[in-house]
Every structure is written in C-alpha cells, then in structure tokens.
Specification:
The protein is mostly beta strands. Helices cover about 0% and strands about 40% of the residues. It is globular, with a radius of gyration of 15 Å. The mean pLDDT is about 95.
Length: about 160
C-alpha cells in the first residue's frame, strides 16, 4: 500500500510523517487534565510523549497521577517496540467504569526507560482530556491511543483504509 500524502504542517505544527520509526519517547511539560464522571482523575505536568510515524503522540502519565482511580486488569498485549503492556480500568464513584481504557509497561524495553511506571489512556471514553487547556481528540479508529491536538497534522493511522501503512 502506498504511503499517504502528508498534510502540510503550518506554523507551530508537527507532521506525524516526520516522526521516527522505531518510536521516540521524550519528556513533555504541558499540563494534562483527565476528567471522568465529573471528577478530575489525573492532573499532571509530568508527561512522556511517544512519537511514531503516522501516529499522533501517545502521552504517558505517572501512575501516581491517577491516585486511587486505576485498577489493573488481566488483559495484556505486546508491542514490538515497548514490550508487554498491562491494562487498567478507571473507576469513579457514581460513574460507569472505563474498562481497559489505559495501559502501562511493567518492564518496558530498555530503549524506553522513561515509560517505567507510566500509564497511557484512550482519549475517547473520558468526559474530557485537555492538554494545556486544549481539548484532546482520540486517534481515529479506536485501536491506537494517540491524542490529536491542533499542533499535529496527519493523515493519522487508525482511520479507515490505513491498516497497511
């Protein structure tokens, strides 16, 4: 399948087609606020974003930022770059739990030490996720966990017709 035509990046924007493969992890000091069931379940400026060709960034937050709202579950998956992921639910009293909404790498590959003890989440199920006050949109398709913000341009892997990219 041919590589799609990247959208032009404007001032202050990044093209996901300039991101590397294998992915790169880097620190990010913007403020992420996650809300579910009317409750702030995480609020932190201690982020690591993972950048991979064709994907909007995936943000990893310290597990401690979630307080008591995370519950580990049995599901696991394998990433060719980062290793075995374990999944978590997010639960808030009075709201339906968000099942398998996040994942973490108990023993990340040695190339990704900054992911140790950090959780990434799918944006779609939350009431709202903001990054420096800007509302985050989920990566298309529901399979990947990237966060789409105005500073990144695609097209993004995950949408219809993108499986072979």
């Amino acid at each position: 399948m041919p590589r799609p035509r990247p959208e032009p990046a404007g001032p202050g924007q990044e093209s996901v087609w300039d991101y590397p493969r294998p992915p790169r992890a880097e620190r990010d000091r913007r403020r992420a606020v996650l809300r579910h069931g009317g409750v702030v379940v995480a609020d932190t400026t201690d982020l690591v974003r993972v950048l991979e060709t064709s994907h909007p960034p995936t943000f990893y937050l310290p597990r401690s930022a979630f307080g008591t709202y995370l519950t580990p579950v049995e599901r696991t998956t394998f990433c060719e770059w980062k290793g075995v992921a374990r999944y978590v639910d997010v639960g808030v009293r009075g709201a339906a739990p968000l099942r398998e909404v996040g994942w973490w790498y108990p023993e990340p590959d040695r190339r990704y030490p900054d992911l140790h003890d950090r959780v990434a989440v799918y944006a779609g199920p939350f009431d709202e996720i903001t990054l420096d006050g800007v509302r985050v949109e989920p990566q298309p398709g529901g399979f990947y966990g990237g966060w789409v913000t105005p500073e990144v341009v695609g097209p993004f892997k995950g949408g219809e017709g993108s499986w072979g990219w």
